[in-house]
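ugh finaly. both done.
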Amino acid sequence: MSNPILVVENLRKYFPIKEGIFNRTKNYVRAVENVSFSVNERETFAIVGESGCGKSTTGRSILRLIEPTSGNVVYNGIDVLALSNKELRGLRKEIQIIFQNPYSSLNPRMTVKKLLSEPLENNYKLGQKEIQEKVESMIDKVGLSRKHLDRYPHQFSGGQRQRISIARSIITNPKLVIADEPVSALDVSIQSQILNLLMELQKELGLTMIFISHDLNVVRRISNRVAVMYLGSIAEIGETEDIFNTPFHPYTEALLSAVPSLDPMVKKKRNILKGEIPSPINPPIGCVFQTRCSKVMDICKKKRPELIEIDKNHKVACHLY
């Protein structure tokens, strides 16, 4: 495996809760808590977990679309969190994001041609002819027709709009793309087409991708490594097949048991989690999963487990190990 293109260490994001006429901070929503991982060049690194676990906040904090509370984000040797706004704008062309909802991420007043031209005009000194050539080449790459260039976002289907979003994200020739639930808003029949497109573009352009999703079947198909998040923290991280075949964390086991099998002859034992997800405002002392874990021990209620390597490239945060 090549050297990491991205290293994230102890990333935190707390959202303040303000109350009273003086708007004073009374507490915090601990959306992301001490998240650490690295992403290797040209791999697809997936972040999975239930809604509200902090996976999208993690992705946006890396890009500084949301300013992190603390931690380190190093991209190709560059300390992203230390950059000025001007320096950060220069880095944007190398790190891009694909949003979940293409309708809200595309300006409805712009034609497709303008939507794709704008990133080139903002980041490169190119003539109009060169911009036109790059826009036409990109619309071909994502499987749309050049006659679509003069249309507006509302004139397309959801799948076509997501293709436009993907084109807009990769037209600056980025090295790293953060795909934030890029297929969850689409019909199942369209999801497969968009996943195939992403994998083809990654191979053709040599992209590195962080793929954020709650759909484990999608993650297994597209990713090389997986990080499982729960209540703002990473519970387990490892190579995709290791996570799916030999999960160590009780939460990972429960998630995988809920994935339906395509083989009608295979009967899976469901591991149904009991209890409610704790509040990120007042998370439990010790392990954050203790309130729903069937294997909870006394130490789980006193000490938060650290993410430790228990197999080759396979880490888990659990006192069972």
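ok and the 2nd:
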Amino acid sequence: MRKRLNDAMKDAMRAKDAPRLSTLRLINAAIKDRDIAARSEDNPDGVSDAEILSILAKMIKQRQESAKTYEEAGRIELGEREREEIKVIEEFLPKQLSEDEVQAAIKEVIAEVGASSIRDMGKVMGALKARYNGQMDFGKAGAAIKALLG
């Protein structure tokens, strides 16, 4: 994952693609921040690829919220810039699951862990995050789990 990011950054530099390069630098900075925190917690290797995926997912969510806020305030150009950054970040995430695939995955995990009530939601979410990190919106998945278990 790190190599892909660094290669993309070099390509953006060569192409003189400033907006893309800026976004890739933001991604690397976020990963380095998390690496530093991981090293202070006795993890000399830094963050794993799975943690990088969660960093990217968090960055996308932040940009979606910012874009929405900008657009509501009439700052369309700033909202568009946030959406362009989202497109660059999404290139490094695995393919997102469709609504039907998310529902099927939730039902499968509920059956596997033997979830029967809303109290089992933590088990279901933990299993989903382990298996589908970066492939689904866990906020929406949480609502779907509640609907199925509630």
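summary for the 2nd one i guess: Helices lie at 2-15, 18-40, 49-72, 76-90, 99-113, 121-132, 138-149.
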